[in-house]
UniProtKB/TrEMBL annotation:
InterPro entries: Glyco_trans_8, GNT1/Glycosyltrans_8, Nucleotide-diphossugar_trans
One of the Pfam families matching this protein, by short name: Glyco_transf_8
Species of the source: Mycena belliarum
Transmembrane feature ranges: 36-56
UniProt protein name: Glycosyltransferase family 8 protein
Keyword field: Membrane, Transmembrane, Transmembrane helix
PANTHER family reported in the protein's UniProt record: GLYCOGENIN SUBFAMILY MEMBER
GO molecular function: glycosyltransferase activity
Length: 368
């Protein structure tokens, strides 16, 4: 009986299809969703690309300086003689520094080139006794340098953040004590410079400190740079200034990794005079503006070999004195670097080296 009831009940039940909403998985809806996603992704990618492009232009743009859009429209000489008394030669000094044997020949060329340009001054060379050999001292003396020992001035804050090759560079500050040797005016020259013309007028500068603006300035968001390069300095020595610098280098806030150049920029930043490029003709000028470089040639006093070092032979340690044969190889290779961009300037250095060897080669040979 129960079975019959179930059959009867089920026979009277009818089923109707319930109308449902369109499926979200239909082909049309999937196509629409993909289109929206593609557009969204494309929009995000374009936004990121724009932000990246903007960041690159901001952080890696070449800052503006006087070398940009240069036009040769000024033919006036850099220096003029206004007359008046000049300091005697014994109270003036060309000074450099020697912290490694590898720069002895370079300094010999600097000294000989300065004498060839008739610079009237003493040639004083502070050096670190435990870093320089008898051979190196013999070579620099052969070209007229007067070497004298100075103590190491260690970098501030224990050398935190400083590159190892700059650890001795604060010793350069000792040149401010030249007043104890009777020097009233001095010109500092880095070992990788070359004197092309006389610069005696710098000794009569009324400023206590002067230097040439730096030409790198990469990454400066202001679009210009106020810093100077410490490869050539014109200054009046003062032991009082030296003692003041020694104290303040430990408490001052400056980029430690840039060593003494950063400190000097801080110390003299507000009062130092800026010299024309002809007194520190950095090879970077030629790389940036060949037109300006050509305009400087007639007045160029000092060339600074920052981009290539004609006296460095990659096959030998940079701390060793090169033989004449190794020097010839070093000069040849230097002229080929940067696709030969500085071959002419390396040629200037080669001519100065060979002139030195012709004049002083016999004395230098005795040093080996």
């Amino acid at each position: 009986m129960m079975l019959a009831f179930r059959r009867t009940f089920c026979n009277h039940i009818s089923y109707e299809l319930v109308e449902s909403s369109p499926s979200t998985h239909s082909p049309a809806s999937r196509k629409l969703a993909r289109s929206v996603v593609v557009r969204l992704v494309l929009f995000v990618v374009l936004c990121l690309a724009f932000l990246l492009w903007t960041a690159i232009r901001f952080f890696h743009r070449i800052p503006y300086n006087p070398q940009d859009s240069y036009q040769d429209i000024n033919r006036f000489p850099v220096a003029v003689d206004i007359g008046g008394p000049h300091l005697p030669a014994q109270k003036r000094a060309v000074v450099s520094s020697l912290y490694s044997d590898g720069f002895a020949i370079a300094l010999a060329v600097v000294g000989h080139s300065a004498r060839h340009a008739n610079i009237s001054a003493r040639f004083l060379l502070p050096y670190l006794e435990n870093k320089v050999s008898v051979k190196a001292l013999c070579i620099v003396r052969a070209t007229g340098w007067e070497p004298y020992v100075v103590p190491l001035i260690p970098p501030p804050h224990g050398g935190e953040g400083i590159h190892p090759r700059f650890r001795d560079q604060y010793t350069k500050l000792s040149i401010w004590k030249l007043d104890t040797m009777g020097i009233m005016s001095a010109i500092y020259l880095d070992a990788d410079t070359l004197v092309r013309r006389n610069f005696d007028e710098l000794f009569d500068s009324p400023f206590s400190f002067a230097a040439v603006p730096d030409v790198y300035g990469a990454g400066d968001p202001r679009g210009f740079s106020l810093t100077f390069n410490a490869g050539v300095l014109a200054f009046h020595p003062s032991s009082l200034v030296f003692e003041d610098m020694r104290y303040k280098m430990e408490v001052a806030d400056f980029p430690l990794k840039q060593a003494e150049q950063a400190f000097l920029n801080l110390y003299f930043g507000a009062i130092g005079a800026r010299l024309p490029y002809v007194y520190n003709a950095n090879l970077a000028i030629k790389a940036r503006s060949p037109v300006m470089w050509r305009a400087l040639l007639d007045e160029m006093r000092i060339v600074h070999y920052t981009a290539v070092k004609p006296f460095i032979n990659d096959a030998r340690s940079s701390d060793s004195v090169l033989s004449p044969e190794e020097m010839e190889e070093a000069m040849t290779l230097s002229g080929q670097r940067e696709n030969g961009a500085f071959a002419e300037e390396v040629g200037w250095w080669r001519d100065a080296y060979r002139r030195m060897m012709q004049d002083r080669g016999a004395e230098i040979a005795k040093c080996y």
